[in-house]
Amino acid sequence: MEQQSFKRFLIKYFMILLLFVGCVEFFITFIVNQWVLNLFQEYYASEISSRPSLTSSQTGVLTVAICIEIFLGEIKHYIPIIPEEPINILMVQVEEFTMNMIPSLPRQWHLGTMGDRDFCVLLVCLLLALVLILFPYVVVAIVYSQLVSAQVERIQREKQLIYEENDRKRNLMLSDIAHDLRTPITTISGYSKALHDGMVTDEKMQKEYLNAIMSKSAKMTDLINVLFEYVKLDSYGFKLDREYIDVCELLRENAADIYSDIEEAGMKFEIDIPDEKCIVYADRIQLSRVVTNLLVNAIRHAGCGNTVLLEMKKHAGVILVMVADTGIQIPEDKIEHLFEPFSKGDYSRNSGGTGLGLSIAKKVMEMHHYNLFLQQPYKTYSKAFTMQLYEVMDEKEGA
Known about the structure:
The structure is a single chain. The chain has helices at residues 2-44, 56-78, 84-101, 116-196, 203-234, 247-264, 284-302, 332-335, 347-350, 357-367, 395-398, and strands spanning 242-246, 268-272, 279-283, 307-315, 318-325, 371-375, 383-390. The chain is α+β, with helices and mostly antiparallel strands. The longest helix has 81 residues, at 116-196. The protein starts with a helix and ends with a helix.
């Protein structure tokens, strides 16, 4: 995206400066034809009724031709030992070439018939005209190079800021991971030491300690597994294993897998998935992980007595999958950082989650070039996380 933006920048300013050069060149050429050549004709070629009209390139040709004739004339004058005939032939050829290149130049206006003073005056005028014609090109080249340099520096600064921000987030994430691991490790270490040292003799208390150790170990395992998944998505060389899958079938499978968890949480589960096939080109495992993460997130935050909805709609090739619940809404100050890993005040971690589920879901959707966003409220529900996918009408589209 950034590369496309830079290309648009280059093309945009190139066209603007090219238009500027064209306008300035037209204006200068007009002055050359109306003033320089008119002045020359008035003083040195008044017998010619017609006056040539030159373009910028023809002005250059005429200037070069005059320079050559002056050079050849000086050779004839200061080096008399050189035969005049080849010099005269060369001067005639230069003159004929000039006349062919500038059809508007009157045939009576022969360069060879001009005196030295006439030559010099015309040469100075034409050199001045060439300088004026080349001036906007030089200015535009300098301006364009400065614009490009400034844009490149801006992009480099933005990349540096992004790198520094990512580095800060990475360090913060590692700090939060260490914090989340330290608590269960401390508990496991303390309880296991107490059991090992025989400090707990009551059988019931021993069982409670063992259950606590098992619970904390499971939490650490979950955190490490989720962290592994998050890091794997960011790893170099990781690719989605895409295939053509039926979203409706995938959603029904996810709903069946999590149904018992919703019942155990004392919640109601509503499902609205059409019977028709809706084909997308996606990674089945990763897309299933997104749906599961959203459902687990709803169970964790809605709480007992609330309702979870899994709904799918399709319109004009756009597939919308909503995971909604009737729990409390997410505070406005937390929505901006909702999909960031271990974001400050992360409500997932505050309720016993890892703080990575929504981040993984968002990252997977972006890797598919899909979208994931929050709606508050949604129908009669307090909130809904909406997955936006695109249906594949023809299998060639996904290839």
